[in-house]
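Dear colleague,

Following up on Tuesday's group meeting, I ran the structure prediction for the two-component complex that the binding team flagged. I've pasted the input sequences exactly as they went in, so you can double-check that nothing got truncated or mislabelled along the way. The structure tokens for the whole assembly follow below. Feel free to forward this to whoever is handling the docking comparison.

Inputs:
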Amino acid sequence: MAVLPDHVLSYLQENISGRLSPACFYVDAHGKLLSWSGVVDAYPLPGLEAGRAVDEFIPLVVGLNEIDFPLVFPLVGLAEDVVVNVHVLPRKAGGLYVLLLDAMDEYNSRQVYQQKTNEVQLLNARLKKVLRQLEKTQLELEQKRAEAEEASRLKSRFIAGMSHEFRTPLTSIMGYTEMLQRGMLDSSQLNVASQSIASGAQHLMSLIDNILDQARFAAGEMALHNAPVDLVAVVNDMQAMFAPLAEQKGLNLELLSTLPEPCWVEADGMRLRQLLINLCSNAVKYTDSGLVMLTCAYTEGQFVFAVKDTGPGIAEHEQQFIFNEFHRIPSQSAKSGAGLGLAISQQILEMMGGGLTLQSSLGWGAEFTLSVPVSSLSRRAETSRAGTALVPVERTVKVLVAEDNPDVVQLFELFLQSAGYDVLVAKTGQQAVDLVLQHVPDLVLMDMSMPVLDGYTAVQQLRAKGFDSPILALTASPAPQDKARALEVGCNSYLLKPIAMDELLSKVSEYLCVEAKNG
Amino acid sequence: MVELSQQAQMRLQQMRDNYKQSLSAKKNELEAAWAQCMQSEWEANAVAKLQSLAHKLGGSAGLYGFNELGEASRALDGGLAGVSQQADKASLQTVLALMVQLESQFSVALS
């Protein structure tokens, strides 16, 4: 290789020396420092002295007294955070040269590079996280879109099914009505027309009920309202309700009951009736001849009701679909309804914690059995039936009725006054607050939905002003959150409209007794 | 149950008769409010008026023995809760079904 010109070499020497601050240490074959030259002052080497071991000042050079090739220790840390590159070279006369070159620039660059690398890694990790989130969001969106499409598909199917179901009875109703209006029917046809219109209207009514039930389920608004129910009365009603239709079709309708009489339980009577009506109505509708048998029993907290018929039966492959919404058995489509009855029954039973089973085979009739857990109330019902006639109160007890509906007020007033209470009436929440503070009644019946000041605010104000007698909330909303809200603002209890008068009086009396005892 | 005096019983009967007689006017008022809702395309005040009437009827009808009418009114009251000019077709269909149900219960109550 050609030698560089002298002035280039001297330029390089100056430049490199200026930047790297070279300091050279001469070391003998025993590792003792002989002398030094160069920019030694640039490095913190306290106690630097000839004759001392070199490794006292410069780390890593331990045991390197004799080498025959150069060694480089990059980025070696000295005191005061100074970083150097240590070059160790053999001396011809024996021993070593130890050359220190300033490596702070290199070290700082590496630090910056490392920091940038870390930042990039961090950004990468964040990017991956964002991408994962994006993928998740995309999946969720796709799922939502699929759900929306499914809901839309079901809605379309529902509307298509419903319009067909509505049109059939409506056609008959409109047709007969038109003929009646035009005087086109003779006396014998009048009866047929009125029956047809009545049954068409009945059918429409039950369709509407079913649609509304379905909407309530879909909106999660279906709630059970448990109250004492006599199961004997419920099943007897079924027999009374379906006997005329069964007789008309020439069917035997039999009821086998092992229920104790009476059989009071706590259940949602309306929904229970709806379940039994659905089952009985299907059995009578699909059976053309023979028998429809209703059996019922109450054992170990379970009400079991079975409907067995001698109808066409349900093929095994149809049985898995029969509880689906809008499902109709093709062979029976002429008699089918909207296909909602069993689906709704199933949903109601789920809420009640019960179940519905089917045993059937084609040509051999069908048997639907429902079982519902219901708690017995025999003793309570007996007590209540034995009569807890409310004794009119002895002293004058003031009850304030805060209610804006005059139809409700006058009835409350009549019954409360008949029970011996002194009744005050407020038509707005504000009036209620004023009257309570003025007359301090023993109990307040507060409608929660009133003009000027609603019941919730009125109760809050009264409690804040120290009124501590019972306040019973009156509301038409069965929603649990409204009940909770009423109790939260300071009501003692809650009465759901429409309220039976005996329930109202019993609740009023109960709270006044509690007050009297506490007082 | 508290025993009503003969005079109170007569008053109760009178109140029941009055209530039954007032149903026709209540029905007209509800139908007018319904028409207003349809005309105004479910403007908030019109809906509130209809809901208030349904609410009142829901609270009173059952007390006078018109349980189904009361139930149908309360259902309409509840169904109207989320209805506005932005309501979707399905909600309006549900409200329509509720109104049909209420009308039919009025027919039964007034017959």
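The helical segments of chain B are 6-39, 44-60, 67-79, 89-110.

Cheers,
M.
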